[in-house]
Automatic annotation (TrEMBL), chains A, B, C, D, E, F:
GO terms for biological process: glycoside metabolic process. It comes from the Bacteria. InterPro entries: GlcNAc_PI_deacetylase-related (IPR003737), LmbE-like_dom_sf (IPR024078). The keyword Cytoplasm does not apply. Transmembrane segments: none annotated. Keywords: Zinc. Pfam families: PIG-L. This is PIG-L family deacetylase. GO terms for molecular function: hydrolase activity, acting on carbon-nitrogen (but not peptide) bonds, in linear amides. The keyword Chloroplast does not apply.
Length: 249, 249, 249, 249, 249, 249
């Protein structure tokens, strides 16, 4: 929307995730695209995924502190590969508790980063309760951050659009691709970020295949002016709020 | 999408409706916006709405041919006010039959107009069976027109995005505003087109109010950079197919 | 609604069903209640259920004409037990075709009976395609009968409320009890009508049990002023259109 | 239902809302109608809406206590204009916490007011988390209040019907008008109550338009006996529990 | 699945319920069937249903401790009649709180019993908040018990299939029979277990009728090779997770 | 179900598809598995997919008869590779018409093949209207074939379970994997059948990837006794009718 005056600061994207690896598999392309346009991306990881997403490390007998450090190091490398800033709230996973204190910390991040776009998990996931917990706090904090009367530092924000990124088992989470994002130009950056996550190496090919499949679907829905059928990579998103636009396209 | 070379012809919008007045109340803003950008808009009215949407004329004792002529004249004036071309297929309303012949006529219009965007009714409407009938043929014809093997004149088309415009009782038709289009710049044109429909004068204020209400909702969802709260008018749409995009916004 | 003047004729109920037995099992209580209030009830059976609902008769080697006659005789006895008029359109079942001619015959019945209430099948039934076919024609005809321009005998009608009665396997048909009707005062009449259907004797106890179960549910939802827990019988319905009322209760 | 003996006390309606203004915009007509029939209406406002629904006051630099006082004064005037009693639980908004203590306070109000009808928010609202929080506690307390074993003062109640009133963005909250209440006879009282809410003056016309629109829809669904098309005002509701009735209408 | 080596221990079923009687009415047949195959069944009752499910006892003026003892005695007798072990967590009902401590106790039971099959309540029940609370903790604990990093005694488990048993008002809880279990061979055992629950004698016939009705539905869906129509009893279940199989049948 | 006597003939599977290639991509594993157990599989292709699924052939300038012959030859080779019989009804695609005559031809095939299991398309597909048309006729014919009174050759059949196979864009067709079939033992046969379809070579890798992905999901849902994580291939299905079983697993 261009009713107001153009912002003098670069656009800002806020990504809120449950675990340290989520932003790579699910939104790495969107992050790299925003960075490639000169925009700022901030990733808030509520936990390191130290208990629920580090099965191999536990089987290898590692300790909690060690695992958290491993996950942190990997995630920082992946964020660097994408050109984004990552913050860890270290709230403890499996289960990630939904608390007012944690929600309040997210409100402060909203008011500091003042996002133009918000990315987070969808509301349902029968395979991992931390994902809905993160989504709920991300959505609640976004609404609270808009209220002038909410007693947090920083000025109240506007109502940034929200995109839910794709869960691991989309059909079981009520996930329907409503937005297909063409991430072909930044595919190499996303792949590089994935390869920073050594503890989840079994997912590299899986999410490369997913990127191709969403690319096929993207081309199938891309309308009359798409060029020749070269390799396209895509990411899928849902919108919990209506798209606001000045042109149907 | 800009993968392919830019089209040398202006963008084309195809609007397929059941009755002569539908394109004004439901999509007049989108049509006027496209025209204001120098694009071409073609409206295919499957019927004049002579039986189902002309209650007052029947109460006044008018005859079928006379009513069809009235509706045609009004609709042509409204299309002119919006800057669009309107065609009448005169298939007979109440009920509008779903036939392969009529679907085939729409395939030919798709291949001739080669739309970049398609607007039509949503799939369900418990108050008016003609609307779903029109939607079904519009959607079927769009798929058939894409098939190289379909035996119609003209070259196969791509897969243009489709938008469902808002029905009269949205909540009863499963209609959820997924896209809010800002039609403020062309509001006067839409109002002028509405005023061409003298036989439905009771709807002028009703749809002016709806435009305002969708404008309020648009501002509420418009994100951080929207300007001061002046009068905004909106139209609401649904997408049956995923949005394809190069940027989340 | 009492905005207009009170009608001088008794209230009229129109029941449209696919097969000859449906009105008994599914709406016998509602019919008997209306009759008990001095109202007129007209049942339009689109078929006798001669092919799809007469398994035993076919196993016994009976012929088509004989089976139709049996079903007709039974249904007339059941309608008499309820105090309603029954008409047979003899459109042929399994499959019941959806045609404009048959829909048009229903329009004429709407305009003749001028119903205050309409009862029919719900829209979906994966076990019997005739039921959705009947529902579709019943709903389409109701809309057409309201149009002044529709070329049928009789004057255009208003918009009578519609109730979907309960299918045999409710959970598989998307049926949710939205209205629980207390049929306790006329239970004996419903049971007597069921016993007129000798060819489906295996259903007598089944639908008596269902009546009790809906009665239990009715009491559970009946609010603070319901009396002592004596035997209550109920029937369940859905509303495809909103209830219009002058009081929330 | 009239199975039991008629209650000797007037009928009682309990309205449970998140914020001080909700009962006016969403249910003012239902409240005024009940009062006009000599019934008692009690409104339980869980908060004053001091943080989330008082944007202008915060922009003007007012303090928390001052804002709460303003909202209280306005709401009491509006309740008086409708003829209802209002109570404030002052639980703190944005976010309204879901707690067992607050639920327990509602149980006591249920057992004291012994409602025949309950009005509250629908279960979902992606724009305001306080509304679902209020709905959840209102619904939980209603179930607890029915249990003889629940350790609260007062006698266990029956199962009063519940109506969800209309949220600000109905289509985004899964709200479908299932009940259309004719509030024409008390429209002036609802408008007067709205005008008591000076801090939300921008909503007066908005909700007047909504009342008209629901009135149009009401007439469209009102059946055959509705009178001439004079101005009708309506309010829309949903039912989470089945309607129990002795007559289909 | 037979990829791995056959387990040397008998198969294990874990049933998690809110109240002491739930396992009898809703899953008594499944429990008795498993026992009849030589398998082990463990029932974890989160509460005795002392406040919410013991209306008659409260009306008779009994005290809390007495009611809990009555319910416990009855439930132990019913479990014995079915051949299963029952454990009581005594967490307090109406409302049953959702807590991390209680969830953790369930994790320990998962890791101890190592279930091959899990039975619990469906996720929604507008008539009883304890049922969804129990379901939520049962599902959360199942996921946590699978995580190697979760700090509980016992080894991480696999992902046992889950079945939701049928609630009292299925259609109001979004319950659709996805699995129909033939419990005819153990019907007598289920009936005997029901008769252990003297405080809920009014439900004996109700759930006998339900067993028959699900039996009728079972036969209707049972495919081509079902034998003669003798009395069949059934129980209905839903699956929140996909069925994994080596053969479509 | 084993209530009746064991059938003396081998089990029979009937696969009904819109186009010649569908049975390979979507159900090749299920077909090969059934054949590997000594069962009979009959595939009824309603069309060759000559217009809608043969884009490359049309671009190469081939004629209709030639394309039909190519598709037939390929499909016969693929069926042979799977060990199944294939029949072509040559009803004409794009659009595949829904007619009573074609439905009747399917009734005869049901009564001849007497299937224990039926596989077909899901009910919705916004990308290809032929798929829902085929599904509708397959489902209607199955119900008609069960009616003793339906005037077709052959004896009435029982009610075989139905499985919907996975469409090309599952999330857009409301497809949720309800059954995950382990096709690892016959993967090579499915791949060989795919390679018979030279005109759709671009899909070989796509559906190999899909098989792997469904295999990953299968293992994730496979419960506690699955063996070591070797390569697993899967196919996903939905059930429109309840599963009938003697054991929860």
């Amino acid at each position: 929307m261009t009713h107001g005056k153009a912002p003098t600061t670069p656009r800002s994207t806020l990504v809120i995730t449950a675990h340290a690896g989520d932003f790579v598999w699910r939104a790495g392309g969107a992050i790299a695209l925003a960075v490639s346009r000169g925009e700022k991306v901030t990733i808030a990881c509520l936990t390191y995924g130290e208990r629920g997403e580090s099965a191999r490390a536990w089987r290898e007998g590692r300790k909690l502190a060690e695992i958290k450090e491993m996950r942190r190091t990997e995630a920082e490398a992946a964020a660097a590969a994408l050109g984004a800033e990552v913050r860890f709230l270290d709230a403890g996973d499996y289960p990630l508790p939904v608390t007012q204190d944690l929600t309040d910390r997210l409100v402060r991040i909203y008011r500091e980063t003042r996002p133009d776009v918000v990315l987070t998990h969808p509301r349902d996931d029968p395979y991992n309760g931390d994902h809905p917990a993160a989504a709920r706090m991300a959505l609640d904090a976004r609404v609270l951050a808009q209220a002038g009367g909410y007693p947090s530092e920083g000025e109240a924000i506007g109502a940034p659009p929200v995109f839910f990124f794709e869960p691991h088992q989309p059909e079981m989470c009520g996930f329907r691709p409503e937005v297909l994002l063409d991430i072909t130009p930044v595919w190499e950056a996303k792949r590089a970020a994935m390869e920073c996550l050594a503890t989840q190496q079994h997912l590299w090919e899986y999410y490369t295949d997913l990127g191709k499949r969403r690319g096929v679907q993207l081309r199938r829905n891309a309308g009359p002016h798409l060029g020749p059928p070269h390799a396209t990579y895509g990411e899928a998103y849902m919108r919990p709020y209506p798209q606001v636009t000045e042109e149907l396209a």
